[in-house]
Amino acid sequence: MLELPHPKPPADELHETRLKRLAMRSMRRGIKEMDLILHAYATERLTVMSDADLALYDDLLNENDHDLYQWVTGQFAAKPQYTTMIGDIQEHIAGN
Questions:
Q1: CA 17 to CA 24: how far, in whole Å?
Q2: What 8-state DSSP symbol labels residue 95?
């Protein structure tokens, strides 16, 4: 499968701009289920994430929606670097 490169955000991106960009990417995914799941998660969690967590979430958003959906629904194990964040997303889903 051909994998397209993902553009990197500018190094001098303002925190507020980063939050807005990640929120938009969370709600414009490609499959409706991930739009709903990630938009709700981002709305509640982005503002309290550390810079490291925001960078990881940014990387997570570059993953394929079908893979994300299978990880979030527990059909397949997430890549190791995302295990904790996927668990947090699953907890968020269960709490809503």
A1: 11
A2: H
